[in-house]
Each structure stands twice: as C-alpha cells, then as structure tokens.
Amino acid sequence: MIVIVYLLPVLSGGLLAHLLWPDRKAANLALKAFLGIGIGLGLNSLSYFLYLSFFAGQHWFIAVQVLTFLLLLSLNVWRSRLQRIPEARPAAVHLSRAQSVLLAFSGLVFLISLASTASYILRRRQGDWDAWMMFNRAARFVYRDQAHWLASFSPTMDPIFHADYPLFLAMNIASGWDTLATETPHVPMVQSALFAVACAGLMVSALASTKSLGQAALGLIILWGTPAVVNEGARELADLPLAYFFLATCVLIYLYILEHKPGILVLAGITAGLAAWVKNEGSVFVIAGALAVTVAFLRDTPWRRLAAYAAGAAVPLAIVLYFKLFLAPPSDVLSSGPARSITQVLDVSRHLEILRFMGNELLYFGGWSILTIPIGSILVLLVYLLLARQPLGAQQKPMIIVAVVLIGVPMLGAYAVYLITPYDLTWHLTYSIERIVLQVFPLLAFVILSATRLPESIFASK
Amino acid sequence: MNIKWLQRFALAAIVLASLAASIQNLLATRSLGSVADDPVADWEKRFEPIRKRLPFERGVVGYISDSSIPGVTYDAANDEGEYVLTQYALAPIILVKGTNEEWNIANLDRAGFEAWEKTNSGKFEVIPIKGGLYLLHRIGT
Q: CB within 10 Å: which end of chain A, N or C, has fewer?
C-alpha cells in the first residue's frame, strides 16, 4: 500500500518533467525520472495544501492524485502525437577499464550506504529530533484533526516548534496517512529515503548526461560516501530534500545553457520554487536562482530567461507567500527586534564566531578520515579541483557563475540569520551549521566534477 | 611525479576514503540502538492515559517539568527533549509551558512533585498517572 502513496506523485512528476523537456536521450530520461521524484512530491504537497484549503475533513485526495496523473499522461500522449520527437537510439556502451572500476566502486559504496540508510531509519523509526519537533509533528496536527487543520498554525504554539515552517514534508506525510487511513511511520520513512536516493540519482544522471559515465560514478562515490549526507537522508528532516532542490535547480540551469530549451528553465523555476516550500532557506534560494539566471545571461536577453524561470517558480512561490502571509505564525528568527539586531550585526565577535564555525566545516565537513585524522570532503574536493581542473569552455563559464551565485547567496543568507538570531550564537551554530553546509554540498560537488577532467582521461595510458 | 600521477593518486584516495567512510558509517549505526526499540512510541504509550482523560481532543494544555520548579535538579537536554516528545505525542493538543490553563500536565520526579505541591496545594485537582506524570485540573475556573 505504501507504494501507492508515492507512486502516483512520482510518476506525475516525471511526466511533468517530460512534458516541459521532451527529450529521449537515455541519460536525460534517467535524469527526468530522478527529477520526477522531487517535483512529483512537491506537486503532491502543494495539491494537498490546496485540497485542505477547500475540502478539509473530506477524504478523497487519492482522486486528485489519479486525475493529476491522468491529465499529465494525456498531455504527454497528445504532445507526442502533435510533435514528433526524434527517438534517441541507445548507443552501444563499451566500458573502459577505468569506467568499469569506478562503476564497481560506486556500486559498492551505494549498496553499503543504502544499508546504512535502512539501518538508521529502522533504528529511528520516527526520525530524529527535528522530525518530531517540526515536520512529523505538523503532519500529526493536520491528519489527526483534518477538519480544523488551520489551528495547527496557532500563535499559541511554542516558537520552538516552528509552526511557521513551510509544509512540503508535512503535507506529503499527512496526505499519505490520509490515503492509507492510518498514521504509519512508514510514510515519513519512505519520503526520507526517496529523497536520499533521488539526490544521488540526480547527481549521477546529470553527470552522465553532461560529462561521462566515469564522472557520474565518481559523483556517486563522493555523495553517497559522505556519511553526513547519508545520515541526513535517513533522519526525516528537510535539509537533504532542500539540497536536492538546490542541486536540481543548478543542473537544470546548466542544461539550459547547453541546450537552450525554455522548458528546462521553467523546470528550474519549479525546483527553486519547491525549495521555498521545503524550508525558509529555500525562499532565499529562489532569489539566488533569479540572480543566477540574470547574471549568466546578462548580455543575452536575460528578461526572456527570467520570465521562463519565474513562470516555473510562480505557483509554488504564490502558495508559500499565501502560507507565510495569512496562515503561519511569526518566525522566531526575526524576533530579536531592530535595535537588538543592529547591535548584534555590529558585534565583531559574532562575525568571528560565525567565520570560525564555517571554516571548521570547510575543513571537516562530511565525516571522512584518513588514518583516524578527520578530513573534510569539501577540502578534498577543492584540492582535487586544483589538481584536475580543465580549461573552461564557453558553456562552462556561465555555469560557474551560476554555481557561485547559487551557493553564495544562501550562505550569505545563513550568515545574516546567524548574526541576528535571538538564540545563543554558539548553540545555534553548533546545532545547525553542518546542515547549512550540507544543503549546498551536492551542488558544490556537481560543479567541481563538472569543472574537472574525466577519470577516463586521467587513467588513459596516453 | 607528474601531474597525471598526482591526479590518479587523488582520485584513488577519494575512492578509498569514501569506501572506508561508508563502511565506518554503516557500523556506527549500531550505536543508535536496537531495531526492536522505539523510544518515541514508548513515550507516546506513557501519555496515552492522559490523552484519554482530557475532556477534549484539540485545545491548549499547560505543561511543567522539573525545570519549572525552583531548586530541583534536572538534565536540561532531557527536559527539553521530553517537552518536545510530549507535544509530538499529544498533537493536535497544543502544549504551553506553565500551569495557567484549565488542564495541565506535570512531568515531575518525586522531589519535583513534592516541591510543586507545597506551593500549589488546593489550587488543582491532582490526578496521578503512572511514571511521574500528573494531570492537574485547575479548581474554580
């Protein structure tokens, strides 16, 4: 039964991706399948939110899911009849020795980390701290008294429960329980695992599409060999889903630079907009995405590109704004007040403290070690970039600009939040800095692997 | 050593570091406890009698714990964790700290309850529940 809960949304997401980007290259089909997971779950979450707004207390959301799927399927069939899309002939794959070895290692790392994810999820059946405090708690509030679900956003609620947080995860969980008519922990478990697999799949298929099989295998080895990423995928929290949408947006903007198909940029707008429905940090990311598109195409009619991006982001962003303006209680992060915030911003010691924590993450993020000495995955990747960088082509330069904006703006946003946080700064940094870095880590790894030589050429005899 | 060998060495190091980290991570999940245990579900069972005795299914209920009683020692992290889990267990009831509501929950050890009772005697009807839990019904509201 749990399959039904997620199958229809995931298929619908894949169909929407295919509708906007009708391409039949094998690597791109795989990419769209992994995009379908996040986009589909996002659409499902937004649909359930709208459904509750009009039909709270009724239990026929499954009909909405079926209708959405049938509509997208019909549109795809209609479009394929109207417009012949050339069939991409699958090219015969001849693996080089380097590719075979890397694929074998990536398979091994994938299986071990999949076992870790399963082991973690089974030992934390209801997720970790933030899952009880925010996402699964919010889902319970909605599911257990659906008719009065709006009371979930009561200002009476203690601010530590963050009733103002966007509802991506909570709505999917509540809709799953609604469909199954039972409050099983399997629904949030599967959602968490789906995002873990989707994030890895997106990285692999994007690198396979834009670089090579060897680079794709290396991408999987780095992403799923990083314990911080693997564990986060099992904790039922929002940071890995957010990282997934950050990565998806970057990949799609890069694909637009390569292929110039407006539908891809609409998809990038959708994934950025959905990031804002996952966590507050996602709202900053939507702005980062718009900035990235503008800067990357500054000399080449950026407004047309921005319009495509905005068209994709419009619906999720409108729902986020409606939720934030009319339903959500005030955010605790902004509760310091202007006078205290200004004092905190002018306090040099706070800047130094934040920079110290960020520097530590640069050195130690990820959970890797060599002979028991901890060493950060980001540091290793940067050293690898220095050693194996390749000259940037005309299409890679704008991609680097895009990546710098997509990583830089959210990090600046996080920096600003730390400056004005009403909580003890050291506690706040200790509690959250690793997850802030995790949000941009897959994107950073993708960009570094896009800018470095292929393993196939590194291990070539000549 | 030319640059190509350095690149090969770096790539091999990444693969091996990743593989080693994956194995260590898998082994480390054992420290999270047994797959048969579900402390969150156990916590919910503890609060089931309270849920049944409350006269409503959605509303506001007060909550105090050892940290609310001056002079009583407590573990701050556990105290906060129990508050969060209690809210999770009782949803869609909203918990607020303090005893200003008509219905309130006291999650106190013996010393904490005795100290609280000294200053609040007669203000509440106290309904003891198992395991240091008390349901407090404000008198005269």
A: C
In this structure, is residue A298 part of a structural domain? yes
Count the neighbouring beta carbons within 10 Å of the beta carbon of residue A12: 26
Please spell the DSSP secondary structure of A245-259, one letter per residue: HHHHHHHHHHHHHHH
| Residue B114 CB neighbour total at 10 angstroms | 12
Residue A32 lies in a domain: yes
| CA A272/CA A402 separation, integer angstroms | 13
Is A122 at the interface with chain B, CB within 8 A?
yes
- Chain A residues 77-106 with a CB less than 8 Å from chain B: 102, 105
Strands B133-138 and B94-97: unpaired
Pairing relationship of beta strands B133-138 and B124-129 according to DSSP bridges = antiparallel
Instruction: Work out the minimum CA distance from B61 to partner chain A, whole angstroms.
Output: 11
The confidence band for A462, taking pLDDT boundaries of 50, 70 and 90, is low
Query: Do the domain assignments include residue A316?
Result: yes
Specify the residue for token string 């995405």: A289
Which secondary structure element, helix H or strand E, spans residue A56, and what is its range?
A: none
Q: Testing the interface with B: which of A97, A111, A116 to mutate, by most B Cβ within 10 A? A: A116
Cis omega before residue B55 (within 30°)? no
Quote the minimal CA–CA distance from B52 to chain A in Å: 15
Q: What is the ipTM of this complex?
A: 0.92
**pLDDT, tens digit (0-9, with 9 covering 90-100), for A27-62:** 899 999 999 999 999 999 999 999 999 999 999 999
A147: contact with B, CB 8 A cutoff: no
Contact B85, B45 (CB under 8 A): no
Q: H helices within A56-184, ranges in order?
A: 61-82, 97-123, 129-130, 136-144, 168-180
Predicted confidence band of residue A382 (pLDDT cuts 50, 70, 90): very high
A439 occurs within a structural domain: no
Q: What residue in A sits closest to B12 (Cα-Cα)?
A: A102
Q: What is the pTM of this model?
A: 0.95
* A351 half-sphere exposure, CB direction, 13 A CA radius: 7
The answer to whether A145 contacts B57, with C-beta atoms less than 8 Å apart, is: yes
Rounded Cα–Cα distance for residues A195 and A135 (Å): 15
Judged by a CB distance cut-off of 8 A, whether residue A135 touches chain B is no
Q: What pLDDT score was predicted for residue A88?
A: 65
Return the structure tokens found at A281.
């940090």
* Closest residue in B to A120 (Cα–Cα): B29
Instruction: Give A442 to chain B, closest Cα distance, Å.
Output: 15
pLDDT at residue A106, as a whole number: 97
- Of all residues in chain A, the one with the smallest CA distance to B26 is A116
Residues of B in contact with A144 (CB under 8 A): 57, 91-92
Cβ atoms of A235 and A127 within 8 Å: the answer is: yes
Domain ranges in chain B?
3-32, 39-138
Give the C-alpha separation, A173 to B58, whole Å: 20
Write out the residues of chain B at the interface with chain A, using a CB-CB cutoff of 8 A: 3-4, 6-8, 10-11, 13-15, 17-26, 28-30, 32-35, 37-38, 40-41, 57-58, 60, 81, 84-85, 87-88, 91-92, 94-97
Mean pLDDT of A93-103: 91
**Cis peptide before A262, with omega less than 30 degrees from 0?**
no
Contact between A247 and A198 (Cβ < 8 Å)? no
CB contact under 8 A, A366 and B21: yes
